[in-house]
Amino acid sequence: MVDARTRVFAVIGSPVEHSLSPQMHNASFAELGLNCIYVAHRVEAGELKDAVAGFKALKYGGVNVTLPHKQAVLSYVSELSDEARAIGAVNTLEFRKSRVVGHNTDGVGALNALREAGVEVDKKRVLIIGAGGAARAIAITLAMRCDVAGITLLGRRKEKLIALARDVERAGAGVTTALLGDDLRSVVEESDIVIHATPVGMHPRTDETLLRAEHLASKPVVMDIVYTPRETLLLREAKRAGCKTIDGVGMLVHQGAEAERIWLGVEPGVEAMRRAVLEALEDG
Ligand SMILES: NC(=O)c1ccc[n+]([C@@H]2O[C@H](COP(=O)([O-])OP(=O)(O)OC[C@H]3O[C@@H](n4cnc5c(N)ncnc54)[C@H](OP(=O)(O)O)[C@@H]3O)[C@@H](O)[C@H]2O)c1
Question: What pLDDT shows up at residue 111?
Fold first, then answer.
């Protein structure tokens, strides 16, 4: 029951109405028997500063930040975790007395999704497709937290790939870049794990994929971070090639689970979170 002691958490973004975070976190809070509630607030760019000040004043338990505020919110935090600083974006705000600490749990979410599926990243060659916010968070987190054998960044724009490669190298991993026009089969052959981090294949354009079964003949593990649909065309192609596959729900659940560890210092109800996400996805 919501009462005068209930701790409030939220996600902010614009739009935010599609977010699955409320269902996911409320399911975990219920599972753990915590007097907490998680809501969504639509916040426009010009309102971000006031929103963060408001959360502080109202003593929110924690806040997630989604598009388009993940970078802009850097201006309103008092400090950053090492990862958030290296990534240059924040998806989780922690309120510590008068300070606001910015974290980024997207990369850890992807790493824990791989580990949950029994995939170890140390000593592995990882191919990341994309050079946007999610690709950046994943590449930098793997470079900081794991002993990868190397990271290849595959995308469509050379300059953007080179800029990201520089930051990933600074974070501690050896990096190469490749372009989508290159011989994709040989790029994939040099990788043990492929992580797709572009919107290609996402609803409603579900008949698109950047890699086909013939590119995946070397059978790397394939993770697609797109989760609408849960089984993308890329994952179907990867299955056809005989690869182990991991869908995007794991990353979504684990980035949220990591936020709860930061806010509450508890082990989150990961299975309840996953059930809530899957139910919400089924309901469409
Ligand atoms: N499972 C999860 O928890 C989770 C978390 C975050 C994001 N996601 C999903 O991951 C996807 C990417 O998110 P994001 O935040 O990184 O987006 P973003 O910052 O907009 O970056 C998108 C990246 O994809 C590339 N791209 C877009 N269309 C492409 C195409 N047709 N061919 C080749 N490359 C293309 C872009 O290339 P350019 O750089 O050339 O523009 C850019 O590098 C989205 O579908 C999002 O829903 C999932």
Answer: 98
